[in-house]
Amino acid sequence: MFVITSIFNLPLRILVWLIEGYIFLAVVRLILAHVPSSRQSNLYQPVKTLTDLFPNLIRRHLAKVSRTPVPSWLLWVVTVLLLCLARQILIWILIT
To answer: pLDDT (tens digit, 9 = 90+) per residue, 24-75?
Structure first.
């Protein structure tokens, strides 16, 4: 944990929180996808709509570049890795 010493760093900290929240929701969505009874719940569809945003953007971008279909697990791996990298960069900016 680190303390924000400047008001100008607050937007970066909020961005870090948003990234952490998105990663948490992505994990929840992937767990709920493997439980058949939860797919009909009121929680699954909104979480799926929210978390599938980045993998769908990556899929559309790769569809323009490549003709071969991309497996869905690869889209999730790329999304999570990019978000973790962005989070680490933002934390590094905040600390230095």
So the answer is: 999 999 999 888 888 888 888 899 999 999 999 999 998 899 888 889 999 9
pTM of the model: 0.84
Question: Mapped to the 3 state alphabet, what secondary structure does the chain carry?
Answer: CCCCCCHHHHHHHHHHHHHHHHHHHHHHHHHHHCCHHHHHCCCHHHHHHHHCHHHHHHHHHHHHHCCCCCCHHHHHHHHHHHHHHHHHHHHHHHHC
Q: CA 87 → CA 19, 48, 68, 74, 81, distances in Å? A: 7, 22, 30, 20, 10
